[in-house]
Amino acid sequence: MWLFAVSVPLLPALLMVSRRCRVKVSSLCRRALNWALGLVQGRACVRSTHAFVFSNCTHGKVDSVLQTFDLYAETRPSLSIGPETGEALDDVVRRVRPSRALELGTHCGYSSVRLLRLLPPAGRLITVELDPLAAELGEEIILVAGFKHSQVLTSPSAEAIPALRSRPGPDQRGGGGFELVLMDHDPRQYLPDLLALERDELLCRSGCSVLLVNRRRRAEDLGEVLDHIRARAGRCCSIRTELPFMVEIFYQKENTETEGRSVGGTSEVGMKLFRLGRARCG
Ligand SMILES: *[C@@H]1O[C@H](CO)[C@@H](O)[C@H](O)[C@H]1NC(C)=O
């Protein structure tokens, strides 16, 4: 709400300047207003989704929490990823069976709850949310669903990622790092965050699935990050599944070349193993 309070007194000034450079300012103004509106609408949406789920679900029952979210989304605009994307997410989680998962973009806590219910008892989820209100309400929903050991970090992903490096992991199996990362925040952050996760060695070297949610279902939203992956395909990351609403990137960083040489001895066997290693990675 404070955004309105701030942007309204600025309007006359903007209009005055606009006489000189009308086109530039009007587009700038429209963008600023859309951004402010988006934020206000997003917050209203988080509040009403939270109120609906909180008062209508059976507390402590995961399935009831998810069903209540879906019921809400049937008739109202919602920030939850919904059952279709949710089921695709479940399939990946069941296949990857992560014990450490990271979510960027908590929103109302819907996908956090979906993820948590499929983690092993010792599994951990860290979820990062930029908006303090969404983080608080999302965390409450996670608790309502009966999960007490997840962590909600309120900060921009670009600040949360370097801070995660210094956090000691619960277990260092597979060289540490997350086995599953769900990106559902700002698609413009997907590539820089992926690179930061890689740089800070937060992606499990023996295999990590990075899921990119494409809420607007617009190919150009993921264009940059997918071009980057395609350019490096076969070396350490590749696109595993590509759906209109979600893309799965598989990341793996094992030194397959050394593995081939040490096991194979002769170059032919070595090459075969090397190729196998690459195929497994790609
Ligand atoms: C709970 O569900 C009922 C029936 O769908 C709905 O009318 C009511 O507004 C919901 N509660 C809240 C707080 O949203």
From TrEMBL:
<dbReference type="GO" id="GO:0032502">
    <property type="term" value="P:developmental process"/>
</dbReference>
<dbReference type="InterPro" id="IPR002935">
    <property type="entry name" value="SAM_O-MeTrfase"/>
</dbReference>
<dbReference type="GO" id="GO:0032259">
    <property type="term" value="P:methylation"/>
</dbReference>
<dbReference type="GO" id="GO:0016206">
    <property type="term" value="F:catechol O-methyltransferase activity"/>
</dbReference>
<comment type="similarity">
    <text>Belongs to the class I-like SAM-binding methyltransferase superfamily. Cation-dependent O-methyltransferase family.</text>
</comment>
<keyword id="KW-0128">Catecholamine metabolism</keyword>
<dbReference type="GO" id="GO:0042417">
    <property type="term" value="P:dopamine metabolic process"/>
</dbReference>
<dbReference type="InterPro" id="IPR029063">
    <property type="entry name" value="SAM-dependent_MTases_sf"/>
</dbReference>
<feature type="signal peptide">
    <location>
        <begin position="1"/>
        <end position="18"/>
    </location>
</feature>
<dbReference type="GO" id="GO:0042424">
    <property type="term" value="P:catecholamine catabolic process"/>
</dbReference>
<protein>
    <recommendedName>
        <fullName>catechol O-methyltransferase</fullName>
        <ecNumber>2.1.1.6</ecNumber>
    </recommendedName>
</protein>
<keyword id="KW-0732">Signal</keyword>
<dbReference type="Pfam" id="PF01596">
    <property type="entry name" value="Methyltransf_3"/>
</dbReference>
<keyword id="KW-0489">Methyltransferase</keyword>
<keyword id="KW-0949">S-adenosyl-L-methionine</keyword>
<keyword id="KW-0808">Transferase</keyword>
<keyword id="KW-0531">Neurotransmitter degradation</keyword>
